[in-house]
Fold:
Amino acid sequence: MSADRRIHFGGDYNPEQWPEEVWAEDTQLMKQAGVTMVTAGIFSWARVEPRPGDYEFGWFDRVMDNLGEAGVRVCLATMTASPPPWLSRLHPEVLPETEDGRRKWPGGRQHYCPSSPRYREYATRLVERLAARYAEHPALQLWHVGNEFGCHTRQCFCDVSAADFRRWLRERYGTVEALNDAWSTAFWSQRYDTFEEVLPPRLAPTFANPAQQLDYWRFSDDALRQCYLAELDVLRRVTPGVPVTTNLMPHHKPVDAFEWARHQDVMSLDFYQDPFDPETHLGAAVNFDLMRSARDGQPWMLLEQAPSAVNWRARNSPKPPGTMRLWSWQAVAQGADAVLYFQWRQSRGGAEKYHSAMVPHAGTDTRIFREVSELGRELASVPDIAGTRSRADAALLTDWNSWWALELDSHPSTALDQTLINRAHHAALLQAGVPCDILPPDRPLESYKLVVVPNLYLLSEENAERLAAYVEGGGHLLVSFFSGIVDDCDRVQLGGYPARLRRLLGLRVEEFWPLEECATLSVAEVAGEDGELSGAADLWSEAVDLEGAEAVATFAEGELAGRPAVTRHVHGSGTAWYVATRLEPSLMRRLMDRVREAASVHPVLPGLPDHVQATVREDEEQRFLFLLNHGAAEAVVELPEPMRDRLRPGSEAVSTVNLPARGVAVLQP
Structure:
């Protein structure tokens, strides 16, 4: 990020779509809208290298110069996200294939096999020329490698990928005997005699080997990351002082965000809320906290969002007035130091011509441009927010290896969705106004008062021991169903579920009882409690036997009537809770409130009205309280002390905030 303190504002800039006489108007309008940064060049490969080795950078030089003269900083893309048609004409082996052997052809984007050495050769050659040419350009702010890795080609199953997979397996296992053991190939006569017999999990007559599928998720993530790292190596060598990022996608299963965070200087996210979804801000909140947490609380960048409607859903609603502002401020409230859009000027043609842009088809005399420009002015008015951070007493654990394993086929239920499971637990904290970090299970946990584990189906022995030590040392842990079931090779841990968590949780799960689609069952709090933990559950249930834990709530009907549904177990100096079903949202909120209160985890503001989000960003000198009303009605929020709203210049300090629907306040004493 820049040394000057400000929240950057702007969007993707694609001048190659327009005649050069439009470019001067672009920079003038950018000044009018308060644009401080653009991402340029994402899809420029075919224009700057129209033929192999024939580079035409002159036009892009003028683009960079125009932006620099206008005071607009550039997040410069490496241009490798969509290869030009000549590459696949000359080298058709770079094209990806599906699991059933169908080739994906040019005509869209991301038409390359991640394992292709030929693709990486041409991509890094371009990056070398690009980096050398613009290394000293005054407009260059940071590098943007590729674009949305794994968006369209999540996995490739071609022969090039198969050979690369075999190389990857040799490095992972060393011997084919170790591979056979890890993949349980004694089942269904799948034993391999040599690595050359191994293929990707292509379309098979029935269920493919689950451990093979799991390893292919790991391999595919690594193959995509190797594309990124190949370009990163060039940039580090040629422009060592320029920071590097790439835009991740939300709820993006193919790409392990924690692993990719290790290779970025700043995290970046593309997020497109759905105006038709009344809970879309809950999904945004999980992803925003993930971006903030992935690099230990460092501010991140919202690199893409839509000013209004997108084009790629079946039905694409515009954002009602005030919604774009609210959702942009939500990103800032949760740690973003940059708010950008796709894209600056709305395309006339192509697949995204109906995707909204900062300058719409109708021009500047539009609601969209007025709202965008007003947001630019607001963000510019509070530059001191940039660089501040958030602190959390609660952490939610999630793990890509477990996610890949959880959603494989041939399970008790294929209805388990890691994204929804995580969101349900995170929402119960968000709605209470409790900050939450999102971490992998191998991070240090000692600084947190509460650790929430929505689901860790795959749990290593080391991470299980880490959870046990956390609770023994006085921590409070909440674990939900179908956790701690298999090892790193998707092999069941024997001795009663959940083997590695059994002693910690003080229970044994004898049998899984997934529910039919749309079926529900009742949960009742046990006698002696206050009755708040009674309500409905769905999706999943388990036959739980107590081994030291106490039942807090039980199933009130069905085959498991009277069996524990929610348990509590004192372990060492701490407490471990277990939830053997999916509680309805209101019941999950009540349970989470009880658990966090026992852990002395307090909200930013007590007694928040429904649908109001409260967060804090601070540094050693100042503290900002953000209030965002995601509801459809005005909300009244009581403050702990008089504060003034930084978004209303000249306003007096107040003790009560009347927050309109879709309203935002940024408060300081």
User: Anything to note?
Assistant: The radius of gyration is 26 Å. The chain has three domains: 8-152+243-385, 394-598, 612-668. The CA atoms of residues 52 and 90 lie 10 Å apart. The first strand starts at residue 8 and ends at 13.
